[in-house]
């Protein structure tokens, strides 16, 4: 096999690629010339929000998989340049995403910054431990196994592979401490277990919003963050928000930088470096 033929083309797998953040990572990957595969529980592509979305959506390979069952997606991890974990929960409640799609004011009525979790658990299986931590470690283990198996053959060796974990800068008033705790535990475990197998890239965005979705509750937090930039007291509670588009572009840049590993802090994402 020739040297040219033996090179692995840049390719990524995004688990949760049809989700809020994941779809923008898929978009950034397509725009950067990557081959992109999305894995999700439904396998269904997201609905286009703007005309531009239809173009990149048509170029992504949308596949159905269960993150807790590696046999359902091992074949999709083979020879991939990078794997991105972009799933998780903000509240330990299966209905919170529906609440986020309500009007900003209806959500804020449910949001009590001084109390406990404002949304009662509707599904005990959706815990921070399971969704934010264990799902990432299971996916990372499956990817590591594929790399160790494939790299035994020169023609299928993946150069400078990476695993991207979408973590968080910090929480916000009213959010359970378990959210950030499980994120940090996952970060630490990825570094300890796989330091010699792949580059761990930890993205720490703030509260995220989509640039094309101007009416969602995320825009409210964006406004609060902008106020916080001017009022120090508010800034202690509300960190700068960030668009999912910027997070996606930043993640792809770190994948392309074959020497980078570690944490990508909020300021770096905000300021495009």
UniProtKB/TrEMBL annotation:
One of its GO terms (cellular component) is mitochondrion. InterPro entries: ComplexI_NDUFA9_subunit, NAD(P)-bd_dom_sf. Transmembrane segments: none annotated. One of its GO terms (biological process) is ubiquinone biosynthetic process. GO terms for molecular function: protein-containing complex binding. PANTHER family: MIOREX COMPLEX COMPONENT 2, NADH-UBIQUINONE OXIDOREDUCTASE 39 KDA SUBUNIT-RELATED. This is NAD(P)-binding protein. It comes from Ascoidea rubescens DSM 1968.
């Amino acid at each position: 096999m020739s040297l040219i033929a033996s090179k692995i083309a840049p390719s990524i797998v995004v688990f949760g690629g049809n989700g809020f953040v994941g779809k923008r990572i898929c978009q950034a990957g397509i725009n950067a010339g990557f081959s992109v595969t999305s894995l999700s529980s439904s396998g269904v592509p997201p609905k286009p929000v703007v005309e531009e979305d239809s173009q990149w959506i048509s170029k992504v390979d949308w596949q159905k998989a269960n993150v807790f069952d590696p046999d359902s997606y091992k074949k999709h991890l083979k020879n991939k340049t990078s794997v991105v974990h972009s799933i998780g929960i903000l509240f330990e409640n299966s209905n919170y995403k529906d609440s986020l799609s309500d009007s900003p004011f209806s959500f804020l009525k449910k949001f009590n910054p001084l109390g406990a979790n404002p949304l009662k658990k509707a599904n005990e299986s959706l815990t921070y431990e399971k969704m934010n931590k264990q799902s990432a470690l299971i996916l990372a283990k499956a990817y590591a196994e594929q790399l160790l198996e494939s790299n035994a053959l020169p023609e299928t060796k993946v150069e400078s592979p990476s695993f991207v974990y979408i973590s968080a800068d910090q929480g916000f008033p009213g959010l359970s401490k378990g959210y950030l705790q499980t994120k940090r535990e996952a970060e630490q475990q990825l570094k300890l277990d796989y330091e010699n197998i792949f580059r761990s890239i930890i993205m720490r965005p703030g509260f995220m919003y989509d640039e094309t979705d101007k009416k969602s509750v995320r825009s409210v937090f964006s406004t609060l963050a902008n106020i916080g930039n001017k009022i120090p007291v508010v800034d202690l509670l509300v960190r700068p928000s960030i668009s999912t588009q910027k997070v996606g572009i930043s993640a792809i840049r770190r994948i392309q930088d074959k020497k980078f590993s570690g944490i990508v802090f909020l300021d770096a994402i905000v300021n495009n470096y």
